UniProtKB/TrEMBL annotation:
Cofactor: a divalent metal cation
Lineage: Bacteria, Bacillati, Actinomycetota, Actinomycetes, Mycobacteriales
Similarity-based family: Belongs to the metallophosphoesterase superfamily. YfcE family.
InterPro entries: Calcineurin-like_PHP_lpxH, Metallo-depent_PP-like, Phosphodiesterase_MJ0936/Vps29
Protein name: Phosphoesterase
One Pfam family in the UniProt entry: Metallophos_2
Organism: Dietzia aurantiaca
């Protein structure tokens, strides 16, 4: 199962549309994951039409229409992998410990907000599986990062593998 992971698209305020490479990834993906900050329902409509499956949440810049259509935390199980998608996780200091406690029944947590790519693993305090934390950065607004970015990943045999950060 091929995943496209994105966040902080800020369309149409930071860009008029997603970059062509990201739309190409939408066409190749089995599941598109978006960790919030859409700005306008137009991109949500377009992704719902073009993606085979969309798992998404709202972000801190979402207006009432987006908050009505999307959850604050989206959850899904993909080939046995328990996934949660949220926009904000707080400060980077202590993030692993904090999210491992807040998402005890999750294998992979996708988040956004910072525009800073992130790929770490959190060990749970009382044993059990580890929590993988992924932030794809932003494909349209690099802020202080050297590149705009997004991620792809593969789920196979009930495990997340082949996570790749792509620079635009």
């Amino acid at each position: 199962m091929r995943l496209l992971i994105t966040a902080d698209t800020h369309v149409p305020t930071r860009a008029r549309d997603l970059p062509a490479r990201v739309w190409n990834e939408v066409e190749r993906a089995d599941v598109v994951i978006h960790a919030g900050d859409w700005m306008d329902p137009g991109l949500l409509d377009a992704l719902e039409q073009r993606a085979p499956r969309l798992i998404a949440c709202w972000g801190n810049n979402a207006g009432p229409e987006l908050r009505e259509r999307l959850p604050e935390v989206a959850r899904a199980t993909l080939d046995g992998v328990r996934l949660a998608v949220v926009h904000e996780t707080g400060a980077s200091a202590g993030r692993e410990k904090r999210t491992a406690a807040a998402f005890p029944d999750t294998d992979v947590l996708v988040f956004g907000h910072s525009h800073i790519p992130w790929d770490t693993t959190a060990t749970r305090a009382f044993g059990g599986s580890e929590l993988r934390l992924l932030n794809p950065g932003s494909p349209t607004d690099r802020r202080r990062q050297p590149h705009c970015t997004y991620m792809t990943a593969v789920i196979s045999g009930g495990q997340l593998g082949e996570v790749e950060l792509h620079r635009l």
